[in-house]
């Protein structure tokens, strides 16, 4: 996607070409005037060229009109005019072929390549034209990509139609007309899978497509988007609510006109849609072992009908509607599936095609991977379509032998999913950093033939789709940008340079927060059960839940502030692409965490519990309001598209809340950081919360006390809170005082007149190296409560990892040294400071001979301890590898851990898995931890050394590092 610079008040030029930098050559030339004095040169295409060329030319003419108000004429006639734009395909356009034959245009660098093109300015190209901007494609898609390159150069986003991404208006446009030689893309087939379309895309298309279905008119918009994204492939929607792609008249023809390669999903062999097209009464059982002839005939009919188009055939077999096939359950599944593939390939022979020359993909999804692992033989020319686990972690990639297969390999990847352990169909929250890491593994293991992305309803997966396609088009250049660089470039090309940094930072925080827990997973339940309290603790580590709520509120405020700074015409696009997903996430967290807090506060006897119950209801209504705004954008164009309750899962409902009947008079209550229970003068009656005690037990930490705060350490200089609250009606005059001058108290107002008292230590008033005890006394309504304080004034060098309250906690990126074989993974993980073992690293037999990272830390405790390592729930790189690492403390024996042993469902909802090893720390003091790289692609997020002080929380504790 080109970056755009305003060269003058009324002119535009591209700063850089789109992401395929590594494969292109650019030669400077005199600028080409696109719009001057209300006129634009005509665009000439050849009548005999592929239809997509004229389609792209008309789309570009529309883009010029969007920007300047002037629409260039598109003509199949003889070129004319002082300036002209000539576009065509080598070998398919007499116009282009003539320029080549006369030596006026050099195409040697792209001729014969797949989807390559060149753009050049040619002087006196044909009689009557003084100067022409020429776009010549090596094939029909190459020509279309070259034309849409011009759209990028004038600042038109691929999402101009699908997300109201309005470009800047300019009366004069000047193209920075460099000679561009663009080579073939990194991945041969690059596309999307429209899936789970029941909630948005299908209802919207029903109301807007003349077919009353996801028909040719809707697909035309989808296909144009794919071309603008430099994609070329589609698996069409296939649910019961939708007619099969090939059953809707005009769909297949429209795909061919737009030069889009068609396939069908991993569960839909040979371009069929089993849900819509298999008729049990007429065809019998969908069981290959029992009904082979009818099933083969069913596939034969489609191959005969569609073989003239450009297709990638899915081979293999699953059951109806993405279910396991019966034959896949038995011991003979390998033999039967091999026979399925053989029969399918024979159908290609029947229509006169060499199966070895026809693109095919075998997708070992779910139980099919188990069959493949049992030794199934897949023809060498068939692409192996590796799959993720539906949550963004690829289950297996090619071994060294598989990498040599003539059919190569590819990946089927998800940013949207319907299924166990839980759906995520509403908002796109998969970070580009994770997509980049996982697809980077695929690219490194030669999975470069086909990449397909499950995008659900298409929207609101725009950013994930865009990044995935940029990677697939030019992996090297895009991957070098990293998440931050790519988000900035995307924001700049979509909304302009002024707010690009702010938008990129905002989205980086959006992905980080949602990576810890997706909005759809905030119910801590399955699709079939009621939500439970979250594990975000409202009592531990400075109020973990409150910190998350505050971060999301701030995120929403930042998004609103950015929107206010954007030109009015860009705000609807910003709402689609940024503000709505931010706001939806923030409100879902406010709803669930507010409901949680209402139960805790009811349990503690706070009158303010009712306010948090009300705030949860307000957040629930806020989601509805935000969705209504979305669906009203584009002058009603997007009515019915956004659905904030896909599958009507219970997490989208208003959750239960806790309430109290406050006492008639004000009363004092005191709650202490770390403790679930509170002290009160007299507790009010709890109602509508019969299971309140059970709900709050999830945050209870053994040994926590409501009579003392955690120990204050000078090294970490942390503060802790005491909550003073009202149990009744009326104002409560709260007083708080420390027993010694070194105790400092800062008040923070809370809803309902409650106060959060932040306690910290003035270390200058304590003797260095000594410990001291004191108390904070809270008084109101004739009652008082004292909370014990203990402080240790022991200094440590700045940046040192230290023990605090019997734990040492640190992010994986906090190492003191690292040997080659490790790499930082910026913006990846809950901490955003993940590290990983190198993909080039061979699996090791001797841990002591493998590269390590080293951490140094200081403890005040000794004795038994657990080292808890938090890793991303990725899989072993290939069948040749495992997911092992080694750990050693103070030079002791290396403990080897197989991280592939996991509770998968829990791990993918957390985006984290924890493995623990037991240690004995001989004495207090400085220590050395080494983590050894035994297998490639193991990703670490954080570590905690626990002497028994670890509180119950969802995230890892804050780092215990000297400030």
What does this entry look like structurally?
The chain is 28% helix and 23% strand. It is of the alpha/beta class and 963 residues long. Strands 14-13-12-19-18-17-16-15 form an 8-stranded parallel sheet. A hairpin with a 7-residue loop joins β8 and β9 (131-137). α1 (51-68) runs parallel beside α3 (140-153), α15 packs antiparallel against α16 (544-565) and α17 packs antiparallel against α18. The two termini are 42 Å apart.
Concise synopsis of the structure shown:
With 963 residues, the protein is an alpha/beta fold.
Number of strands: 42
Q: Distance N terminus to C terminus?
A: 42 Å
Strand count, sense and closure of the main sheet?
8 strands, parallel
Strand content: 15-25%
The computed structural class is alpha/beta
Average pLDDT taken over every residue: 94
Tally of helical segments: 20
Uncertain runs are 1-22
Strand order, main sheet: write it out: 14-13-12-19-18-17-16-15
Shape: globular
How much helix, percentage-wise, in residues?
Answer: 25-40%
Estimated radius of gyration: 31 Å
Give the tags.
42 strands, seven-stranded mixed beta sheet, alpha/beta, eight-stranded parallel beta sheet, 23% strand, single chain, 963 residues, disordered N terminus
């Amino acid at each position: 996607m080109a970056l755009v610079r305003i060269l003058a008040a009324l002119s535009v030029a591209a700063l850089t070409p789109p992401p395929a930098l590594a494969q292109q050559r650019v030669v400077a030339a005199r600028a080409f005037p696109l719009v001057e004095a209300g006129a634009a040169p005509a665009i000439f295409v050849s009548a005999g060229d592929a239809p997509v060329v004229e389609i792209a030319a008309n789309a570009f003419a529309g883009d010029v009109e969007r920007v300047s108000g002037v629409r260039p004429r598109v003509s199949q006639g003889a070129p004319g005019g002082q300036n002209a734009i000539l576009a065509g395909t080598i070998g398919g356009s007499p116009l282009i072929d003539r320029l080549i034959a006369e030596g006026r245009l050099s195409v040697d660098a792209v001729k014969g390549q797949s989807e390559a093109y060149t753009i050049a300015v040619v002087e006196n190209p044909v009689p009557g034209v003084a100067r022409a901007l020429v776009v010549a494609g090596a094939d029909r898609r190459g020509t279309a990509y070259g034309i849409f390159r011009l759209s990028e150069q004038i600042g038109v986003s691929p999402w101009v139609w699908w997300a109201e991404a309005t470009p800047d208006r300019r009366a004069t446009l000047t193209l920075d007309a460099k000679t561009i030689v663009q080579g073939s893309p990194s991945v041969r087939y690059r596309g999307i899978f429209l899936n789970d379309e029941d909630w948005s895309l299908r209802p919207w298309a029903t109301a807007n497509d003349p077919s009353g279905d996801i028909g040719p008119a809707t697909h035309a918009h989808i296909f144009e988007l794919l071309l603008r994204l430099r994609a070329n492939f589609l698996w069409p929607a296939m649910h019961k609510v939708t007619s099969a792609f090939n059953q809707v008249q005009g769909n297949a023809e429209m795909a061919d006109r737009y030069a889009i390669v068609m396939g069908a999903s991993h569960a839909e062999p040979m371009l069929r849609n089993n849900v819509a097209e298999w008729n049990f009464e007429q065809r019998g059982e969908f069981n290959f072992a029992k009904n082979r002839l009818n099933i083969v005939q069913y596939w034969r009919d489609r191959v005969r009908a569609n073989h003239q188009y450009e297709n990638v055939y899915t081979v293999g077999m699953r059951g109806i509607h993405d279910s396991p096939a019966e034959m896949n359950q038995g011991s003979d599944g390998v033999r039967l599936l091999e026979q399925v593939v053989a029969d399918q390939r024979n159908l290609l022979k029947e229509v006169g095609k060499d199966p070895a020359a026809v693109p095919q993909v075998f997708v070992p999804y779910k139980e099919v991977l188990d069959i493949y692992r049992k030794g199934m033989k897949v023809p060498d020319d068939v692409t192996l379509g590796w799959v993720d686990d539906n949550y963004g972690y690829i289950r297996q990639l090619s071994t060294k032998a598989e990498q040599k297969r003539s059919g190569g390999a590819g990946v089927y990847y998800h940013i949207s999913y319907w299924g166990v352990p839980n759906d995520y169909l509403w908002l796109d929250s998969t970070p580009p950093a994770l997509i980049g890491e996982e697809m980077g593994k695929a690219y490194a293991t030669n999975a470069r033939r086909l990449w397909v992305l499950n995008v659900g309803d298409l929207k609101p997966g725009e950013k994930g789709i865009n990044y995935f396609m940029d990677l697939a088009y030019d992996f090297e250049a895009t991957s070098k940008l990293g998440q931050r660089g790519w988000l900035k470039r995307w924001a700049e090309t979509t909304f302009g340079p002024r707010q690009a940094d702010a938008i990129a930072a905002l989205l980086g925080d959006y992905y980080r927060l949602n990576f810890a827990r997706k909005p759809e997973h905030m119910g801590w339940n399955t699709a079939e059960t009621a939500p439970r309290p979250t594990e975000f603790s409202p009592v531990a580590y400075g109020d973990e839940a409150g910190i998350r709520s505050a971060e999301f509120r701030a995120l929403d405020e930042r998004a609103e502030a950015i929107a206010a700074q954007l030109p009015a015409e860009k705000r609807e696009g910003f709402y689609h692409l940024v503000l709505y997903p931010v706001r939806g996430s923030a409100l879902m967290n406010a709803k669930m965490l507010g409901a949680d807090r209402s139960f805790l506060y009811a349990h503690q006897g706070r009158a303010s519990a009712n306010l948090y119950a009300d705030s949860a209801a307000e957040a629930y209504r806020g989601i509805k309001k935000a969705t209504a705004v979305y669906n009203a954008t584009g002058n009603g164009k997007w009515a019915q598209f956004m659905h904030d309750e896909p599958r009507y899962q219970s997490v989208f409902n208003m959750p239960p809340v806790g309430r109290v009947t406050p006492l008639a008079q004000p009363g004092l209550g005191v709650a202490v950081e770390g403790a679930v229970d509170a002290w009160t003068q007299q507790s009010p009656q709890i109602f509508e919360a019969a299971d309140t005690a059970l709900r709050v037990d999830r945050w209870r930490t053994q040994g926590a006390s409501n009579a003392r705060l955690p120990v204050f350490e000078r090294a970490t200089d942390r503060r802790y809170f005491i909550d003073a609250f009202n149990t009744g009606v009326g104002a409560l005059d709260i007083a708080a005082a420390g027993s010694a001058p070194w105790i400092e108290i800062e008040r923070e107002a809370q809803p309902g007149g409650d106060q959060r008292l932040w306690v910290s230590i003035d270390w200058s008033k304590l003797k260095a190296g000594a410990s001291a005890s004191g108390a904070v006394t809270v008084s109101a309504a004739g009652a008082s409560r004292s909370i014990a304080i203990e402080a240790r004034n022991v200094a440590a060098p700045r940046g040192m990892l230290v023990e605090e309250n019997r734990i040492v906690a640190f992010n994986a990126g906090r190492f003191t040294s690292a040997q080659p074989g490790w790499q930082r993974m910026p913006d990846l993980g809950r901490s955003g400071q993940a590290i990983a073992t190198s993909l080039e690293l061979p699996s090791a037999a001797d841990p002591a001979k493998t590269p390590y990272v080293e951490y140094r830390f200081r403890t005040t405790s000794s004795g038994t301890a657990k080292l808890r390592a938090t890793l991303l729930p990725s899989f072993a790189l290939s069948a040749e590898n495992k997911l092992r690492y080694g750990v050693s403390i103070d030079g002791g024996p290396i403990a080897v851990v197989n991280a592939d042993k996991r509770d998968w469902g829990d791990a993918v909802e957390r985006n984290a898995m924890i493995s623990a090893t037991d240690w004995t720390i001989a004495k207090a003091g400085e220590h050395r931890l080494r983590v050894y790289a035994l297998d490639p692609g193991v990703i670490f997020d954080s570590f905690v050394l626990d002497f028994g002080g670890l509180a119950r929380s969802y995230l890892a504790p804050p780092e215990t590092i000297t400030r």
